[in-house]
Amino acid sequence: MDLTVRNSGETSVHGVALQFTVDSELPLKQKFSNCRYSGGDLQQTAYCTFPDLRLRPGQTAVFTPGLRMRAPKVLNHADLHQSAWPMDLGPYEDVHVPTGGRPGHSPELEPQLRSGGRGQWSDEADVWTEVRTAVPANYAAIGDRVRGAAGDKREVRVGARNDGLGDLGDGGTVDLVFTLPKGAEVLKEPMEEIDEDALLLRRKRRNR
Asked: In the chain, where do the E strands start and end?
């Protein structure tokens, strides 16, 4: 993934600082020798400075080699956070530069100057990029077989199984829909808290 910075202002920039953070789902495959790295297992931040870089108004710097990350084997999305600022002005408000850190061992990250540039440029001090990878899930419904005579009561278990590799991730939900055989009737079902609240509301309405 390319790291790019554009001067969208009206004056030239003398010296650029670049910072990017990846979460645990996008581990870095290389660490540049002119960047300082800090963080732990949940996320890692790289802070890089280019004091000799000059950016005229409208000019873009593409930093090479591109950022290499290892795609997650299970989850299909992750976040990349980027921010940049002129070194003589310092970081923008709410942009935290970690202290300490260790330099990387890969070749240096070098800017390549271009006029203009394509893509959507953020008007804010920083930008979040959601990275999605093709790691599909394979969900299979789990049913049950029931035998009995008319009028019998039986417990039925239904559900779903993920045969992999994908994962819903944080905040993911699954809708489970099942259809009763003709003539069957539900006498009791597991209820979540929201279902119980809805049931109490229906009972109150009936008692009015």
From this structure: 3-6, 13-23, 35-39, 43-55, 59-64, 77-86, 102-103, 110-115, 126-132, 139-142, 159-162
Between CA 159 and CA 38 the distance in angstroms is 43
d(CA 92, CA 202): 53
CA–CA gap between residue 122 and residue 125 (Å, rounded):
8
Site of tokens 């989850």: 75
- Name which of 8, 19, 7 is nearest 127 in CA terms: 19
pLDDT band, residue 78 (cuts 50/70/90): confident
Helices (H), strands (E): how many in the chain? 1, 11
Q: Which of 145, 173, 169, 171 is nearest to 160 (CA)?
A: 173
Q: Which residue has the tokens 């202290």?
A: 99
Beta-carbon contacts of 179 under 8 Å, excluding residues fewer than 6 positions away, are: none
* b/e per residue 28-59 (b: at least 16 CB within 10 A): beebbeebbbbeeeeebbbbbebeebebeeeb
Task: Identify residue 145 by its one-letter amino acid code.
Answer: R
Distance CA 61, CA 2 (A): 10
The residue type of 13 is: V
Sorting pLDDT into bands at 50, 70 and 90, what band is 47?
A: very high
Triad 76, 38, 41: Cα angle to 5°: 40
